[in-house]
Task: structure prediction
Amino acid sequence: MGASSSSEQKASPEQREAESAAAAAGALPMLRKAFADLADPRTSAVPVASLQRCLSLRCDKPISSATRVPPDSFSGLLENVGASIVDVFFVAEKGGLSWVEFVKGYVKCCGRMAVSMVVSNLLRVFALAANKAGHQVDLQFESDEADCKVGGHLVPTDVLMLLWMCWTMLWSSKVHKLPRGKAALFLPDISCLVLSAVVSCADNGSSLNLWNFDIFGSEVQLPAGKFVAWALATVPTLPECYSQFIHEHLGNCSISQDELEPSNSSSGDITSVETSGAHLLTPGRAWAISLTARNALREEILTHCFFSNCDKIEENLLYRSSLHGKGLNRFWSNTEGYLGPLLMLVSGYSGDSHEANTRDKKWVIGVLLQQGLESRDHFYGSPGNLYAVDPIFHAYLPSGKEKNFIYSHLHPSARVYEPHPKPVGLGFGGTIGNERIFIDEDFARITLRHHAVDKTHQPGPLFPNQGYLATDAFILEVEVWGLGGTKAKEAQASVKKREQLFTEQRRKVDLKTFASWEDSPEKMMMDMMNDPNSVRREDR
Result:
């Protein structure tokens, strides 16, 4: 069929070019199998309806963790994703899609190309699917080419639905890996990403009140060109949700539709989502952070977005101040010995602790570390990121100018005089005594400084309306998540076990040493008190 017969006869230049582009993307074997599964044996072509069903995103009852349910048109948008992808990229003949057109369509939507072109393709699919669902999106494309300019604008609701569509694509690509009955769609709270796009793209974005911003009711216009630039800078791996969705669905098109469609009887998965809401690392925040990672950390962070076993996720929680107690010593006893990557989240608020309006303006910041923590009196560590997580999301990657990534200093075990003692606590970026982020040893206060003091990370505010002066804020919660997998956790357990053995050995007293009264220190002290001037033999 199509793919097999093409090897028996001389391939045309068009076919060789398409197959070469697919091979460069590493998808040619998968495409051959998908074509064989989808093609009609009578016509050796793929029916358009079969390909649309293969790429469908139909979900009966999406569940949202946000305060408001998604628009009614969102379900219709998901139902039209498959048809929109086929309409935009695949050119069907009378009998369906031939092998050449099938490969060319895949290359146009998922071949090797610039990330900006993939973002344009994603916007094209979103606009067509939304318009088919009755949700009008004001986007214009100069041509059908992937590298064409995108005109028009988006509103905050459009951005939210676009990001939810990308989340659903990523979720759908992982459905076949989950146990049956664990595939309920959950739409997370990603308002921090929407507000990030609004502030970066809107003309008056910096003057908006982010604490009470209504995403569904706002009509602020975000130019399409600025939105593409924001996506490339803030969430560079967002297009991978779209590419991975198409690749996974074509690679699993032979699986029956009953196995791929979500089940409504997945109460276990819904319970896990509700439980995760008690943590600072919610699925929406975890997904936002994962969109900035390009290495193996991305998959490790994504485990906090799509999971069916809440206990397994809890194993990655190394420290939580409300659970393990506040303070640097409690923090250290739970993180010491963990040599893998770490994600640290801190929630707090600035202002008077007795004023209700300041306590309502809570924010969350984050630090992504590539290695474990050590007790040192100077900066150390490999490149890591700083994050403004909530209410607005920004990622501050290493700038390459300095390497002051981590400062973690405990009180020395042996008390000695220090004429210039180093500060005790945790610091990230900046210099000693002038850190960009510094947490005191009691975990009660956090100091956030302007990005001008930090040449290690990219510039930007850590919370809305951050001024030039240092901000001394109150800490509400601290969380540390291990991202090193099972091996890092086992290595930490081994270190803790060894330390426990050493501690038990130091506590034991050898009674044989004090068995003789003549050799005991008590008798020596009594003799010295009775006759301090007596001559005693000195052991040498």
Summary: The two ends are 96 Å apart (CA to CA). Confidence is low (pLDDT under 50) at residues 1-8, 256-275. Residues 17-252 form one domain.
